[in-house]
User: Fold 3-oxoacyl-[acyl-carrier protein] reductase from Spinactinospora alkalitolerans.
Amino acid sequence: MDLSNKVAIVTGSGQGLGLAYARELARRGASVIVNDIRRETADAAVASITEAGGSAHAVVGAVGSTETAQALVDGAVERFGRLDVLVTNAGILRDRVLWKMTDDDFDEVINVHMRGTFTCVRAAAVRMREQGEGGRIICVGSPAGQRGNFGQTNYAGAKAGILGMVRTWAMELGRADITVNAVVPVAATSMTETVPFLKPYVEAMDNGDPLPPFARRELGFGGPEDAAGAVAFLAGDAAAGVTGQAVGVGGDRLALWSHPDMTVKAYHDGGWDAGTIADEWPSTFADHLESVGEELPEEATAR
Assistant:
């Protein structure tokens, strides 16, 4: 999986999952633009990559605005001469239940996750199309965006929206040989350390203890480095035919998420009014309702 002569941007890569992605891409030979809102964090990430023999450069800024997106692309081109890979990883949390969530809680998360993904992908797509040599765009989703999560109206909504954009961009950029995919990671980061059923596993990792097979396999939970291989794969030539997909990764588990689809259908001549729906619902639809939230193994819920 050789990424030599490739140039990548990884947003939110000063620490956590983003840093793991940046390090893995650099280890595979790519030159990497590291991004963080804090100069010292970005510089430390760059130093960790260069000290390991990789090539990296920092562009500091909060994603969301068109200006930051363009600065990232310009930084890649000015420093390394081109752009081949974009990973939109930057994110924040403002968790609150619906009736306590403020406008600012909602807007800040949507701005970073959803608008930040849009502006960065738009700027990268313009550059990649100008180069005329294809490209790889990898957006970061979440299980919360796939199934919902208590207290995360803003985050789940943004992550679900990102998947909708990924599928659309895969269609729009296909003729330019630019693939667009999402990774849906599950890993020990600042965004998962407060999840109750994951807490004992996060503590184990903090103590340097190995995770049990249940955590790594059934929960698909591990460290940030466990998710980095999927990003490197999607950035490389081996994934040239993969686009519009949501790839779940974490611990020892690799998965492919399905797209939303109709699961049950019925037909009624002349259309459906409330009464005919009420008549049909118990026999055709009632036994096929979808669940909400993560469907966790019994051992996890017992915690």
